[in-house]
Write the structure tokens for this entry.
Amino acid sequence: MLDIKKSDIEKIKNAGHVVFFSGAGMSQESGIATFRGKDGIWNKFKPEELANINGFMKNPDMVWEWYKYRHDIVRNAEPNQGHIAIAEFQKYLPKVTVITQNIDNLHKRAGSKNIFELHGNIERNYCMKCKTFYNEINEIPEVPKCRCGGLIRPDVVWFGEYLPQDQFQGAELAASNCDIFFVVGTSAVVYPAASLIYTAKDCGAIIFEINIEKTDISILARESFIGKAGNLLPMILKEIKE
């Protein structure tokens, strides 16, 4: 049962710009394991060996194989009802922006249009030398090489790397200019991504949180709705439609 005030529903309905900021918990509902949960991927593998430029240069085939495995998991996953609800919000609100820390492309597959991918996209790859982008090559068992001879790597942000400047700047602008900022399925401990919540708050946005438990940013939220995004977001959407 969703306990949301009618006044808050009206604020969402009348918002000129709504942002959905999603994290690993949302992907988990589609069967993609989180990094930090008890069943997290990093409990079985060392991140410094698999998500690090030095690790890639030292053993590119091992890292490529790992990302091929992860790509297969993502490819077999489907957008959940939370992803689908966010995409459907676009029909009822003037502007909807998705800012995601996830690399699984599920928001786009669900139909969302305006998306900023802070940590990249596992379905893309690029040459480290000439920056040419490659798609549909994840089935190759060994790390491929570009026509220029450079190694091709996944287009994801590794430990120690900066976020894509265009994606973060676009996300900052959206956070600065939105009326409503939904925090969905993220513990908000990864920076600089988590700083966007404070940016939105400081610029006057109303913060709503949807998580399976309270987090460090719950104190910033007007309301924290405890439960799965795949259950709660469709309920909120139904209220908006009515």
